[in-house]
Amino acid sequence: MGRGADVIVWINGTFSAGKSSTARELAGILPDSTLFDPEFIGDALRVLLPRKRLAEVSDYQDLPSWRRLVVDTAAAMLAELGGVLVVPMTLLRQEYRDEIFGGLAARRIPVRHVLLAPGETILRHRIATREEPGAAHDVELRVRQWAYDHIPAYQQALGWLTADAYVIDNGALSVRETAERIAEAVRTDKARACDIVQTPHPTAETVAAGVLLFDAEGRVLLVDPTYKAGWEFPGGIVEAGEAPARAGVREVEEELGLALAGPPDLLLVDWEPPVPPGYGGLRLLFDGGRLSEADAAGLRLPGPELRAWRFVTEAEAAGLLPRQRYERLRWALRARERGRPLYLEAGRPTP
């Protein structure tokens, strides 16, 4: 594969599934390939970040900086080297997979997702016989227990993993045989590029239009995008020369298959300040009104773009939306009650 076919082969699986050894072998088989282990980014953050911040998370994957740096580093390496980037890394939380793969898709980098899935008996045997070179006995025991403790999370994630990735049961395969299976799957396109929406990566401030839709009980509709973390309102970026209200109507039809009767009423305008690596911009929310039972029953999902939708109360939304989006929703609901739009800055009404 040349510079025109830059791609990432992401080898997933729980701990002791054989990801690292297989990745090293695969990098020797695929032409123009380079090994990139995101664990080194986690090691660096353990040194760079204050202990207080590290104590707030149980795993470095929970750090937004880790997920952002994985995307940025992978993109930088491909820009420097081209070809294939082989990445051995466990991803068991679907929202982290969405954030990372979505970030790569935004940079037009396809990801071929491969899952190594040996049977549980073999997996437990590998953990029990795994050795950590140079590690003290008590450290080795802690590492093994840590791997055992992650098996339930892996089993719980198998539903979305097997639907998303090209699965290889490597329980009876050697490392070489496993790597050859992956190489063949990549060459023949059996391990297809992950089907995730390619949202353009902003290079300047943007204007986004969201539409609030309600059911008969007054609950608001939220959607779960596949390409970024957290739930969201139906809507999206306003295109050049497009009226924001009409952009909201267009996005609702594209995302949910629902054609609104006309331009919805404005509820609020929120200025989102730039927070690197984001550029911020204007965020508008419109009132799409109450949906009939027939409209709600006819809602559909566009596959690669949205994973799910649901009607929620304001209190339930607080547990699903990122803080700034929830504040936006909260004030939009107040504006709807009062019958007049609000202007916000960073999620807060101006005096």
Report on the structure:
By secondary structure, the protein is α/β, with parallel strands linked by helices. It has 2 domains: 3-187, P-loop containing nucleotide triphosphate hydrolases (Rossmann fold); 206-349, Nucleoside Triphosphate Pyrophosphohydrolase (Alpha-Beta Complex). It is 41% helix and 21% strand. The strands form 3 sheets. Strands 8-6-10-9-12-13 form a 6-stranded mixed sheet, with helices on both faces. Helix 1 packs across helix 9 and helix 4 packs parallel to helix 5. The radius of gyration is 23 Å and the shape is elongated. The model has no long low-confidence stretch (mean pLDDT 90).
Break the fold down into its secondary structure elements and pairings.
Layout: E1 7-12, H1 19-29, E2 33-35, H2 39-48, H3 51-54, H4 64-81, E3 84-88, H5 94-106, E4 111-116, H6 120-129, H7 137-149, H8 151-164, E5 166-168, H9 175-187, E6 206-214, E7 220-225, E8 235-237, H10 244-256, E9 265-272, E10 281-290, H11 293-297, E11 306-312, H12 314-318, H13 323-338, E12 342-345, E13 348-349
Parallel strand pairs: 1-3, 1-4, 2-3, 4-5, 6-10, 9-12
Antiparallel strand pairs: 6-8, 7-11, 9-10, 12-13
Helix pairs in contact: 1-9, 4-5
Q: Please write the string of helix (H) and strand (E) elements.
A: EHEHHHEHEHHHEHEEEHEEHEHHEE
Number of domains: 2
Assigned CATH architecture of the largest domain: 3-Layer(aba) Sandwich
Provide the β-strand percentage band: 15-25%
Report the top-level CATH class of the largest domain: Alpha Beta
Low-confidence stretches: none
